[in-house]
């Protein structure tokens, strides 16, 4: 069973090697190394391979051979997004270009001075959104609601080589004190961001279809967002060719306190992104709970 445990794969040494090549020879050289990393993942990470194969073969309907090829390409693309994030946070952002579809939605949201909720997913490269928002003259403060489960050694290393991020973090607490932090951020006309696609065992959940099959989603983001009486938007930052990124902002038009309708709108929104960018689904675990009995 390939359950997500809240941690990302990788080592500090691996990141140091990539950063060395990024700074000495440029991002394209670092991309070249990814061919070897993707090959290792493809050959040896059996659990994540099985999970992502299911996504390509069963949920997107690709053939056996196409699904196998897409597994390799998926690992390679995921590695590229990580290198892009490191490059941008390390001061090499001028190599990248972007466009923003729906940017007027964010600008209006900020001008209304009510704050707002952004809901994204583990697709594309949302972690670099703040940089591109600044490029498009969208002056916003983002607060990311998250669990603090990343490998601390990698976080500490990236903190040493990166420019200070303007993103604030609101850590989910058992005593629900994060709710007060969320309300305070909204009162300052700031944006609160959730990712809505990773459910932890034992937590509250909602069930909805995505790519034709039901699965569990964390209830928190949709319960909170549907009750705050502030605008809710879906935001994605998708990688394209030649170091170019395409930002998408979509407004969620659902009734107040209707978390199920909000979740349905969210899954439909994510599906539209996956149909256009199938390689950028970065949930390498048993997302649809297909392997529990194995």
Task: Describe the protein's architecture and organization.
- The chain is an alpha/beta fold.
- Strands 1-9-8-2-5-3-4 form a seven-stranded mixed beta sheet, sandwiched between helices. A two-stranded antiparallel sheet has the order 6-7.
- Helix 1 packs antiparallel against helix 2, helix 3 crosses helix 4 and helix 9 packs across helix 10.
The secondary-structure class comes to alpha/beta
Strand order of the largest sheet: 1-9-8-2-5-3-4
DSSP E strands, number? 9
Main sheet overview: 7 strands, mixed
Provide the succession of SSEs. Answer: HHHHEHEHEHEHEEEHEEH
Helix content: 40-55%
Give the terminus-to-terminus CA distance: 7 Å
Report the C-alpha radius of gyration, rounded.
Answer: 19 Å
Strand content: 15-25%
* Total helical elements: 10
Q: What is the overall pLDDT average?
A: 86
Low-pLDDT sequence parts: none
Report the principal-axis shape.
Answer: globular
Topology diagram in text:
Layout: H1 12-25, H2 27-44, H3 46-59, H4 64-89, E1 97-101, H5 103-111, E2 116-120, H6 129-135, E3 142-146, H7 152-161, E4 168-171, H8 178-187, E5 191-195, E6 205-210, E7 213-218, H9 219-227, E8 232-240, E9 244-251, H10 259-276
Parallel strand pairs: 1-9, 2-5, 2-8, 3-4, 3-5
Antiparallel strand pairs: 6-7, 8-9
Helix pairs in contact: 1-2, 2-4, 3-4, 9-10
In short:
The chain has 294 residues and is α/β, with parallel strands linked by helices. The chain is 46% helix and 18% strand.
Defining key terms:
seven-stranded mixed sheet; alpha/beta; two-stranded antiparallel ribbon; 9 strands; globular; single chain; 10 helices; 294 residues
């Amino acid at each position: 069973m390939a359950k997500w445990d809240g941690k990302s794969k990788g080592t500090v040494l691996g990141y140091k090697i990539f950063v060395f090549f990024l700074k000495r020879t440029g991002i394209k050289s670092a991309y070249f190394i990814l061919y070897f990393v993707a090959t290792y993942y493809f050959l040896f990470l059996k659990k994540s391979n099985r999970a992502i194969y299911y996504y390509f073969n069963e949920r997107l309907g690709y053939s056996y051979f196409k699904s196998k090829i897409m597994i390799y390409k998926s690992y390679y693309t995921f590695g590229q997004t990580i290198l892009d994030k490191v490059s941008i946070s390390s001061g090499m952002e001028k190599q990248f270009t972007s466009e923003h579809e729906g940017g007027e939605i964010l600008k209006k949201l900020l001008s209304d001075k009510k704050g707002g909720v952004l809901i994204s997913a583990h697709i594309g490269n949302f972690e670099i959104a703040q940089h591109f928002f600044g490029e498009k003259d969208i002056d916003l403060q983002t607060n990311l609601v998250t669990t603090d489960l990343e490998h601390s050694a990698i976080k500490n290393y990236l903190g040493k080589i990166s420019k200070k991020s303007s993103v604030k973090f609101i850590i989910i607490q058992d005593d629900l004190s994060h709710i007060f932090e969320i309300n305070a951020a909204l009162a300052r006309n700031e944006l609160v961001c959730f990712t809505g696609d990773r459910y932890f065992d034992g937590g509250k959940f909602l069930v909805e279809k995505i790519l034709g099959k039901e699965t569990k989603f964390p209830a928190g983001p949709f319960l909170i967002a549907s009750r705050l009486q502030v605008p809710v938007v879906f935001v994605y930052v998708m990688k394209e060719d030649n170091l170019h990124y395409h930002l998408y902002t979509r407004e969620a038009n659902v009734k107040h306190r209707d978390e199920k309708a909000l979740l349905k709108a969210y899954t439909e929104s994510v599906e539209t992104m996956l149909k256009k960018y199938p390689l950028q689904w970065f949930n390498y675990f048993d997302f649809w709970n297909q392997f529990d009995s194995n």
